């Protein structure tokens, strides 16, 4: 933290009037003072290496130079991690400690070309390889003798995995698989690090043996010569071009022209192909759900991090920025004093806590279910899967909306890349598509909810997180109560009513002769809405319950603020979803008017703590990397300092004056 | 248009099944076959010059190279315009015909450094200069002897113009003004072309003479030497850095250290400073509203163009892309067959028409009011101002939402810059901030509505577009009717009720002792919502009325589709705003369920015409510039062709392999 005497006076005044202990909240967020201390130590250790420092800010570079800088940084980072692993007493057993959370993204701000090596290549080897295969590959991969990635999505095929076209055909004569891309749409497209970085790759391909297709299986394929890095014969590899964001990730394409690999390069922990070409089936594939769900839970955590950054930037800027003169002869107020600005920012701050606690709750559930799975009990797997799908969709969409709202709340300056908000938006918005496109995700949850409703309606028992469906099916509607608990019950009633209405509509359409799939499709706009309603009810109740469990340990001042934020979040969403509440609960116009004043008074109560609340996220300047959001609030100085780094500003007259502008003005062009 | 035989078969099938004549709709959009022909001729003439063709796609360039390319293109474009102006029979009297609409943006896809010369510098000289000043400056500017821009916004001051800090102090001794930037926050910040392009600038500054401040006035200031382009002494000028978009516009900063300009460089059409320093006041400043309103009407047209491009890309892509297998043993359907996809796209198509017709309606009103103004009648000025504010805010926000939804509807490929959707988003989203930040705009309209309500309540007459307030104030509530007309009346009732509720809340707060400004601020979240509701009612009714006036001339097949699109737009918004309708009208649950099926059946009816509807926008491939959206639907081929243009793909191994990757893998980094 910067010494107090250089801090912008408005920001300092905000900190002085904060009603709670900011450090106490930081400890609570980190999960205890010891975690905070460890985090800070880790940050010190990594940042003192200076890898994050850029001579010319990377946004000024060409696409190619951006890649070259990303490779340099990623290599230096991994070198450092390897060194820290070797130093016994650092306590950094693996890369996750360094790269997890916000620290990694502070160094490689627009994605890393080596991420998939650790996040997909090594985990897939571990999860899908036999013991022998693991012994052979994992050591090499951990030691960075080879660099791998994971290729599944194709140019013409994404979410629908069965539609992939790449083939791996077994040739018993040579005991090899032949990898082939039969069409242009079969080209792998998107994998990070694939373009010019990785020399190995796990390729998901349709397995053919003895003339039969057995579906998608994983194969380890060498792409480039280990010494020269030249693509091997038959391997067509390159990069896919510039994207909205993540331009450091080196996303690539990959096509095969009859490329041969040894039989034992198929990862055979589950299914096998014997030497003679006999296919031996996998025992169970349900277990692979685990990884997908793990990734989605991690994604909710990522969304928290981005939202925390965005609200930190926008809130601090709103305390520094002054505008207009609503009262004559008074100075221009801080824009944070405008209630419309509080409306834009404060729900974002409470969303960070809502998502963090919901992710934690989901994480605990994930661990319980995983333990049950290992004991052979799969009962809660569909429930968990349905939860992870809708939470993925709703939290990524909300996070994108939140980051963009924060950006717009900073006016023109939010449009500057130096605010860091546009880059954040690029990263968050990508998450709406990857790891399961959001509309598809919501429809998967809807499928579960429809089944659960049919069970509840038939009087069968249903899992805990859809228990409210049973209550609704039994027509036990609680009377309306204008409290947080009452609103949560209201949201559950909304979700149950929407699911029930969808089921009715589908059944009606089937009865009029429509095929189930067509009835489903025609009802899908409503199904998505039901699925979102379910997720809203889950988010509200888990945020409320987890906070209730947390506050007894907090000081009274902090407790009050934590409870105000839950209230704000719940009331905000009630006001957003009034149409649903009016349709499906007994809320009255008077209740609504009360909710509106409650909301406005919560904004007023939380206003003095706005800066304290974002300070408590404790995101240091090097990680935040924003001209508008730094701790000291030197917004205008930093904007100018950053502008002066532009290569265009290194010379008073650009060459284009002589070449084009002057000839144009002189009529000689 | 490409010859039919190379068109993707799915797209061709879509065109074959279109139920209306696509060309007829194109003519209707252009305002007659002759306009269509002229537009096409203009496009041919400009595009055959080849200025839009890029050797290396500009997205791969560095920030500096992007500027240099933009200057080159802009100069060549203006050279061409000058030549066409000299050729008598081209019919191109001015640059607007070439640069207006979509054509200019096809050549300078991420903004032009010369735009403000024509859009602000010359118009301000014309509007604010005396006849002598016009004679001196406008010729030089039109002839491009000098290149100018317009500097108003400062680092610390945007929407609130009275807060600007730059000073122009008159010195009667030398008969000069002294321009000065007293603080860092006084630096001009944002003007396009200011950084390294313009050599002249109109600077808005606080005028001081005889020790008194007279507020903001315009001054023509030379910034750079006409021959060497070097900044003049005391002029601190440069560029502000990389932004989310518009990186071809060369936005700059500008500070003055006591820079002297002749007295007659103040534009004195309205106010004057005499030689002795006497200030002579302007007769009326109401007339300057005109320009602002003109710009906002143009902005609504721009939004139409961007939305038309975005829905063209996403709809054609959705016809080409196949995914999943809802029914076993059937092929993967086009994603356009998913009702959730239709839900994302079709309302976007109808919004283009809604915005276009509303802009036209506003344009007619603007012309009427301007004529009245010239006759000294200012009565309808506040109404028009209120309309232009809320339409600016709502159409820019809706357009940004529409473009982003289209981008997300294209899945991962929408994230590629080659889709053109991310660049479009950058441009559209900027419009939410410039020309009046959207929240500020909505509050300005709210101020008008509150006054109008008070008038209506008191029984005074109110202008036409708020006539519905008088109806509501007289408690003449029409019974609910589930028709388009009924829904529009419902939206008016919602707007009136919201305005009335705001007035009540503010008055209640004042009665409890709050100052008016504080009561206003505390109610501002509701005020914004009332203002939006007013705008929705306007958009729905103007779209409906303008279409009604248009369809009698259309063929029956086209008429049907045009009416379906109005229905879709109105029903879509009714379903979006159910909470409001339930609160403030007598709509029933049964009405809502009917609306939902109506909406679903409209999607089904419009589905076969989706491609025909976007084809009718007639945006040629060079202007659309999208791998996903071209007329022939060769989506995957174009994605690959574009990727292969990446400079990274020009060599099989990037130099970073030798410098970093190999040493890392060998443990030698």
TrEMBL record, chains A, B:
Q: Which residue numbers delimit the Acyl-CoA oxidase C-terminal domain?
A: 485-666
Q: Which cofactor does it need?
A: FAD
Subcellular location, record wording: Peroxisome
Question: Which Pfam families does the entry mention?
Answer: ACOX, ACOX_C_alpha1, Acyl-CoA_ox_N
For this UniProt record, the keywords arranged alphabetically read as follows: FAD, Fatty acid metabolism, Flavoprotein, Lipid metabolism, Oxidoreductase, Peroxisome
Domain Acyl-CoA oxidase C-alpha1: start-end pairs: 289-450
Key word Oxidoreductase present: yes
Alphabetical list of InterPro entries matching this protein: ACOX_C_alpha1, Acyl-CoA_ox_N, Acyl-CoA_Oxase/DH_mid-dom_sf, Acyl-CoA_oxidase, Acyl-CoA_oxidase_C, AcylCo_DH-like_C, AcylCoA_DH/ox_N_sf, AcylCoA_DH/oxidase_NM_dom_sf
Q: In which pathway does it act?
A: Lipid metabolism; peroxisomal fatty acid beta-oxidation
Residue ranges of domain Acyl-coenzyme A oxidase N-terminal in the record: 21-147
SUPFAM superfamilies in the cross-refs:
Acyl-CoA dehydrogenase C-terminal domain-like, Acyl-CoA dehydrogenase NM domain-like
Has keyword Lipid metabolism?
Answer: yes
Family under the similarity heading: Belongs to the acyl-CoA oxidase family.
Q: Could you identify this protein by its name?
A: Acyl-coenzyme A oxidase
Q: Identify the taxonomic lineage of the organism of origin.
A: Eukaryota, Metazoa, Ecdysozoa, Arthropoda, Hexapoda
């Amino acid at each position: 933290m910067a010494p107090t005497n250089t801090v912008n006076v408005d920001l300092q005044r905000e900190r002085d009037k904060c009603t709670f202990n900011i450090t106490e909240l930081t400890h609570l967020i980190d999960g205890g003072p010891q975690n905070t201390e460890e985090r800070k130590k880790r940050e010190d250790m990594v940042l003192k290496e200076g890898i994050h420092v850029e001579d010319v800010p990377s946004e000024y570079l060409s696409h190619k130079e951006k890649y070259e800088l990303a490779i340099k940084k990623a290599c230096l980072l991994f070198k450092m991690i390897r060194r820290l692993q070797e130093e016994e007493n650092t306590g950094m057993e693996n890369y996750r400690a360094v790269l997890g959370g916000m620290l990694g993204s502070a160094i490689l701000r627009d994605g890393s070309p080596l991420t998939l090596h650790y996040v997909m290549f090594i985990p897939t080897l571990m999860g899908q390889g036999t013991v022998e295969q693991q012994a052979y590959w994992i050591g090499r991969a951990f030691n960075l003798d080879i660099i791998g990635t994971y290729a599944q999505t194709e140019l013409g095929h994404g979410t629908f995995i069965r539609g992939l076209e790449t083939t791996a055909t077994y040739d018993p004569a040579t005991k090899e698989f032949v990898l082939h891309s039969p069409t242009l749409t079969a080209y792998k497209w998107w994998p990070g690090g694939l373009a010019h970085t990785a020399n190995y790759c796990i390729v998901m391909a349709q397995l053919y043996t003895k003339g039969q297709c057995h579906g998608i299986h994983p194969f380890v394929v060498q792409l480039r010569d280990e010494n020269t890095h030249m693509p091997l014969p038959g391997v067509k590899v390159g990069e896919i071009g510039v994207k909205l964001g993540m331009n450091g990730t080196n996303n690539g394409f990959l096509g095969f022209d009859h490329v041969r690999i040894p039989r034992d390069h198929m990862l055979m922990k589950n299914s096998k192909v014997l030497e003679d070409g006999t296919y031996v089936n996998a025992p169970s594939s349900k277990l692979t759900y685990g990884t997908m769900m793990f990734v989605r839970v991690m994604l909710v955590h990522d969304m928290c991090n981005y939202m925390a950054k965005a609200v930190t930037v926008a809130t601090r800027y709103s305390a520094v920025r002054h505008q207009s003169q609503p009262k004559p002869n008074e100075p221009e107020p801080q824009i944070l004093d405008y209630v419309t600005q509080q409306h834009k920012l404060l729900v974002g701050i409470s969303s960070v806590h809502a998502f963090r606690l919901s992710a934690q709750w989901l994480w605990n559930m994930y661990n319980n279910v995983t333990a049950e799975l290992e004991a052979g009990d799969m009962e809660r797997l569909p429930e968990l899967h349905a939860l992870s799908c809708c939470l993925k969709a709703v939290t990524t969409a909300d996070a994108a909306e939140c980051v963009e709202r924060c950006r717009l709340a900073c006016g023109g300056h939010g449009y500057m890349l130096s605010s860091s908000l546009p880059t954040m938006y690029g990263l968050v918005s990508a998450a709406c598509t990857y790891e399961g496109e959001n509309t598809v995700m919501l429809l998967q949850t809807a499928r579960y909810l429809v089944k659960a409703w049919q069970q509840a309606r038939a009087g069968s028992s249903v899992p805990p997180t859809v228990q409210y469906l049973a209550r609704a099916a039994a027509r036990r509607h609680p009377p309306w109560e204008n409290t947080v608990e009452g609103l949560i019950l209201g949201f559950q009633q909304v979700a149950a009513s929407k699911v029930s209405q969808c089921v009715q509509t589908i059944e009606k359409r089937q009865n009029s002769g429509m095929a189930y799939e067509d009835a489903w499709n025609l009802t899908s706009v409503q199904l998505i809405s039901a699925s979102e309603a379910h997720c809203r009810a889950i988010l509200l109740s888990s945020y409320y319950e987890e906070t209730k469990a947390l506050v007894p340990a907090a000081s009274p001042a902090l407790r009050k603020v934590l409870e105000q934020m839950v209230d704000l979040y719940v009331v905000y969403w009630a006001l957003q979803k009034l149409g649903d509440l009016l349709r499906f609960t007994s809320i009255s116009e008077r209740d609504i008017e009360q909710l509106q004043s409650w909301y406005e008074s919560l904004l007023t109560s939380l206003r003095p703590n706005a800066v304290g609340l974002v300070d408590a996220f404790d995101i240091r300047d090097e990680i935040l990397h924003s001209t508008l959001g730094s701790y000291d609030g030197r917004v205008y100085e930093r904007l100018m300092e950053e502008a002066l780094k532009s290569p265009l500003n290194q010379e008073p007259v650009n060459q284009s004056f002589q070449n084009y502008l002057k000839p144009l003005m002189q009529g000689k062009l």
